[in-house]
Specification:
By secondary structure, the protein is mainly α. Helix content is 90%, strand content 0%. It contains one helix and no strands. The protein has one helix spanning 3-56.
Amino acid sequence: MDDNGQASAEFILLFGGIMVVVLLAIYMYNNYISDLSGEISSKEVREFNNQLNNLEKYFK
């Protein structure tokens, strides 16, 4: 019997399964970071605008 072929096939299946899990994790992480960056950016812009508005009184 050819055990080398079976071991190679099992290794390929294991590697394929790991790749599927890694790709799913990257996809989920990418969506999380995209959503988070939008919230951070809008919050930072809003705070920056507020600080500029507070400085405006010193230049009038």
